């Protein structure tokens, strides 16, 4: 083949390698198979099929279009399958990709593909750090430089990337010799009269493998970063959750301390209620709970507050849609809202007041409302644009937890009028719990809590 056509085929070959690998990593199933350290035999077979079938099509195209050799990446893919999936995957992949060529008379294609897959799979077992596989680069001079630097203080001759580079070049040389001495046993791009083209042929094989590994590794790094971000958000959410619990406990202990001196019996009753609440908090480590459990927790909390304020000063009205009670909500969502209504809305009113708890389903999701008829807030005290800043630690944490858990799909708004009361409305996306109750409406009204 003319050198000019060889250069064109080499460039197209690199483009095909990039296109195939970029297309494969778009599949979630392929990524789950590719980035496993340990795979069962069926998973290895699936990985081989994902990578080998497109290359088999490329081999068929090579025989259909006699001059289009760039679509045949069977040599590079057999090596890739070996270093990624191990000896079984490399051997099976080399055998499959050799079938089309063998059927067209190239009898050495399948044995050579099996040999490449097995050798690269064996080389995988020699890698002390599996990250060396993903970070392979065709720029071998950098690996040699690192090898020399490492050997200066402490000699260690083996470097996996240098070894893999030499393996690719060596096996490519074997393929060249097969095509030279047995012309009908295998096909290879050759130009023995031009040294630069000859070097480019070998460099193209190494570069094609490096390109595919770089594409795979970039997706692998992206997945790891997303996982780290998810863990960071989870840790942040847990930190906010842990901040709410001591805040609630501190306020309750203050109430108990005020009762101990003049009403010890009531103090003992409050301590008993507090023990029930703490037992529930200690036993529940879930981030989400059914709304029904949150309401039960609020009942215990209100029992404490009624003891503190008196039966005639704190009235609670619950209007909860039955089809909303089994929906999942963030744990400890309602308690800071109710506490804020009592502390900032009703505590300063001599005659006391009422708290309304409501829940319902709407087109936008689950709507939860906590409303009081307390003193309200002046316009200058209102938080900015629905945020909870300036309304206390508990409310600020609720707002931040919603942002962490739901992003922009959840929203909390505060509507308050001085002298009339405050309405806090939370809109959440639907999270269905198991065993949802039939649609209906549950309404409980009470004038006292005991």
What does the model show?
This protein is of the alpha+beta class. It has helices at 3-24, 28-34, 41-64, 74-85, 87-103, 109-125, 131-134, 140-151, 160-181, 195-260, 264-283, 291-309, 334-346, 393-406, and strands at residues 288-290, 314-321, 328-330, 353-362, 365-372, 411-417, 421-428, 441-445. It folds into two domains: 3-228, no CATH class; 263-445, Histidine kinase-like ATPase, C-terminal domain (Heat Shock Protein 90, 2-Layer Sandwich). The strands form two sheets. It has a six-stranded mixed sheet, covered by helices on one side. Strands 1-3 form a two-stranded antiparallel sheet. Helix 4 runs antiparallel to helix 5, helix 4 (74-85) runs parallel beside helix 10 and helix 10 (195-260) runs antiparallel to helix 14. Residues 384-390 and 434-450 have low confidence and may be disordered.
Sequence-ordered SSE layout with sheet pairings:
Elements (H helix, E strand, L loop, with lengths): L2 H22 L3 H7 L6 H24 L9 H12 L1 H17 L5 H17 L5 H4 L5 H12 L8 H22 L13 H66 L3 H20 L4 E3 H19 L4 E8 L6 E3 L3 H13 L6 E10 L2 E8 L20 H14 L4 E7 L3 E8 L12 E5 L5
Helix pairs in contact: 1-10, 3-4, 3-5, 4-5, 4-6, 4-10, 5-6, 6-9, 9-10, 10-11, 10-14, 11-12, 12-13
Give a concise summary:
The protein is an alpha+beta fold and 450 residues long. The protein folds into two domains: 3-228, no CATH class; 263-445, Histidine kinase-like ATPase, C-terminal domain (Heat Shock Protein 90).
Protein traits:
alpha+beta, 450 residues, Heat Shock Protein 90
Estimate percent helicity: 55-70%
Task: Note the overall shape.
Answer: rod-shaped
Structural class: alpha+beta
In terms of DSSP E residues, the strand content is 5-15%
Query: Can you list the strand order of the major beta sheet?
Result: 6-7-5-4-2-8
Order of helices and strands: HHHHHHHHHHHEHEEHEEHEEE
Ranges with pLDDT <50 over ≥5 residues?
384-390, 434-450
- Provide the residue-averaged pLDDT: 79
Q: Major beta sheet, specifics? A: 6 strands, mixed
Total strands: the figure is 8
**Domains counted in the coordinates: how many?**
2
Q: Tell me the number of helical segments per DSSP (H or I, 4 or more residues long).
A: 14
Distance between the termini: 94 Å
Task: Give the C-alpha Rg.
Answer: 34 Å
